[in-house]
Structure formats: C-alpha cells, structure tokens
C-alpha cells in the first residue's frame, strides 16, 4: 500500500468518528465558523497523529478540529518544512538577543507559575483586545479562564511534550507541542507580557523548529493562517512554508510575495507534489 493510500485509509477511519460544530467566527464579525471535530481521549499511534496534522487538523484538549466553513476558505493550514527553514535577519536577532534563555522540553504539566502567566496573557492579549474592536461584554473571570487552560493545554497530552522557557530561573513562556512520527504541531503558546519586548512568541516557534530539526522531524505545523489578518501575520515570516489547498487537499508552496487578494489564485502558488505523500 502506498503512503497516499495509507493516509487516505487512516483519515477516512478517523473521520468516521467525526462530528461538526458551528459557532460565531472568532476572526470576522458577522461570520459563522464550522469545524469538523474528532474526539480522542486516548494516546494515538504516531502515524495517526501525522495523518491528522497532514489533513489540516489541530488539537485543543480532547478535540482534533479543522475549519470547514460554508462559503469561506480563509483559514488555510500552514506548515514549515523543518530542514528548509532559514531564519531571516529579524529572527536571527531574536535568537541572539535571547541566547541566554534556558529551554526545557518536559512532559506537559500545569503549575501555579504557568497559571499566573496564562491569566496575564489571556487578560492582556485577548480580554483587553476584544475581537472586532468591540468592548468586552463580561468581566474577566480567572477561575473560568484557568478551567479553559486546563482543558485546552493539559487535556489529553498523551501525544505531547511541553517546551518551557526560563530567564534567570524565572518562567517566561511555555508551549504545548503534539508529536507524530515525522511531524509536530504547535498546540498553544503563552509568554510573559511583562517581557513582551523579548519577542518570546517568535522565539518559542524558532526553538520548536530547532528542537524538531535536531530530532529528525520533517514538518512543524502552525495551525491555520488567514491572509491579511493582523493576528496571523507573524506566521508568514517563517519561510519557506507550505499551505493546505482546500480544493485539492494537497500541500503547496506558499508564495509570500503573492498579493494577498490573489492568494487563492492557483498561479500564485507552485505545487509541491513530492511533498504531499512522501512521508
């Protein structure tokens, strides 16, 4: 059986357990978001993880999900071929500036220190920056927020590792990373708002890429990318990259120089057939 056939068979098996969920779009006012969801509360074979990543799924707690919105394909899967990645000048400065930070890769586990960072991060990055420039309608609830943290980041981490970043012994950032056989997927990252000038969000991704390359992984998946959306601009700075063509289900080279409005026009992307099913 070919790699392509094996991928299709595993995907069809996993999606036989899927269901759909519809909710307001978190990125665009007036739009709805529809997700295909696969519930998993067990440790999956690494080949299953690779299949889910390659099919455009990412995980939050017990749920693997991918966007399947009606009449909208703005959310596109985005991945970095690890061996081809080269940091740009800004990213090299980031690595140099943060060269004394300590990196630890450990089994995922919540701590009071992480809870404090998570609360600060969610308050400043999301609560105070309400979607669509609208005022927040309810007060910030620390207890509810920590409940989300434990579900989102520490629910079903049987296929995961956690990357921690320390500055002089003080935790300043952490990320959950899902691990397959030949690829890894960034689940969620949190960093110290007080140390925002250090560029810790970018630094965490750079260190994920470094860690993945050292261990022989082929791809780092960064969830979905939305062309022209300010919250997603940082992903396009990690090059070369590939995007998941929703029409063909094939991964294609991402052309960062293509005009954003023409991003979905086929001529602006070069197919990379040798990267689609060689895993």
What do these coordinates show?
The protein has about 280 residues and is an alpha+beta fold. The protein has a domain at about 75-270: 3-Layer(aba) Sandwich (Aminopeptidase). It has six helices and 13 strands. The protein has helices at about 5-15, 45-55, 90-95, 110-125, 140-150, 200-215, and strands spanning about 20-25, 30-40, 60, 65, 75-80, 100-105, 160-165, 170-180, 185-190, 220-225, 240-245, 250-255, 270. The strands form two sheets. The chain has a nine-stranded mixed beta sheet, with helices on both faces. A hairpin with a 7-residue loop joins strand 1 (about 20-25) and strand 2. Helix 4 crosses helix 5 (about 140-150). The two termini are about 15 Å apart. Mean pLDDT is about 90; it is low at about 265-279.
Concise synopsis of the structure shown:
The protein has 279 residues and is α+β, with helices and mostly antiparallel strands.
What Rg, in angstroms, do the CA atoms define? Answer: 18 Å
Distance between the termini: 13 Å
* Succession of helices and strands: HEEHEEEHEHHEEEHEEEE
CATH C-level label of the domain at 76-268 = Alpha Beta
In CATH, the architecture of the domain at 76-268 is 3-Layer(aba) Sandwich
Shape: globular
Q: Could you say which structural class the secondary elements and strand pairing correspond to?
A: alpha+beta
**Considering the protein shown, what is the CATH homologous superfamily of the domain at 76-268?**
Gcn5-related N-acetyltransferase (GNAT)
Instruction: Output the strand order for the largest sheet.
Output: 6-7-8-9-10-5-11-12-13
Task: Provide a count of the helices.
Answer: 6
The pLDDT mean sits at 88
Residues in helices, as a percent range: 25-40%
Total strands: the figure is 13
CATH topology of the domain at 76-268: Aminopeptidase
User: Biggest sheet, in brief?
Assistant: 9 strands, mixed
Proportion of beta-strand residues: 25-35%
Which ranges are low-confidence, i.e. pLDDT below 50, for 5 or more consecutive residues? 265-279
């Amino acid at each position: 059986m070919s790699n392509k056939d094996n991928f299709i068979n595993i995907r069809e098996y996993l999606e036989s357990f899927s269901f759909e969920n519809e909710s307001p779009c978190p990125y665009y006012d007036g739009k709805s978001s529809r997700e295909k969801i696969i519930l998993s509360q067990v440790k999956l074979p690494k080949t299953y993880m690779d299949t889910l990543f390659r099919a455009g799924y990412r995980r939050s707690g017990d749920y693997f999900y991918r966007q399947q919105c009606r009449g909208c394909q703005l959310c596109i899967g985005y991945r970095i071929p690890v061996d081809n990645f080269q940091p740009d000048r800004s990213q090299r400065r980031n690595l140099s500036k943060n060269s004394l930070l300590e990196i630890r890769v450990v089994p995922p586990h919540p701590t009071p220190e992480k809870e404090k960072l998570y609360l600060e991060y969610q308050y400043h990055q999301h609560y105070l920056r309400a979607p669509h420039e609208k005022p927040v309608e309810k007060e910030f609830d620390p207890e509810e927020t920590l409940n989300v943290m434990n579900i989102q980041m520490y629910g079903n981490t049987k296929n995961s590792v956690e990357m921690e970043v320390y500055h002089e012994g003080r935790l300043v950032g952490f990320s959950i990373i899902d691990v397959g056989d030949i690829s890894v997927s960034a689940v969620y990252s949190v960093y110290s708002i007080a140390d925002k000038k250090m560029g810790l969000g970018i630094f965490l991704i750079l260190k994920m890429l470094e860690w993945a390359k050292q261990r022989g992984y082929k791809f780092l998946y960064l969830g979905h990318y939305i062309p022209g959306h300010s919250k997603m601009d940082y992903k396009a700075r990690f090059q070369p990259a590939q995007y998941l063509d929703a029409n063909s289900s094939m991964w294609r080279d991402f052309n960062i120089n293509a005009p954003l409005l023409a991003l979905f026009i086929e001529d602006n992307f070069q197919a990379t057939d040798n990267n689609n099913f060689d895993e």
